[in-house]
Design a protein that fits this description.
Blueprint lengths: L9 H32 L4 H28 L1
């Protein structure tokens, strides 16, 4: 290989690149989890209030649809 200061074979380079992309993925996922935890840990944060409102609305709508389905079978 030209311009390869470490004299790696093609297979070694592929493994090294795969390891690098795996590490990048782990770092990204960790950062996202840390941000989510930080936002949810805030006492009365707007994000937490919005999330609770959205989840509450979603649960209510799922209950309505469940009731409709149950009543349609009776």
């Amino acid at each position: 290989m030209l311009n390869d200061p470490l004299n790696l074979t093609e297979g070694e380079m592929v493994r090294r690149k795969k390891g690098q992309s795996t590490l990048e993925y782990v770092i990204l996922v960790t950062a996202v989890i840390v941000v989510i935890i930080a936002l949810l840990m805030g006492g009365n944060s707007p994000f937490k209030s919005a999330l609770n409102g959205t989840l509450g609305t979603t649960v209510d709508q799922m209950n309505v649809m469940g009731s409709r389905l149950t009543s349609s079978y009776n």
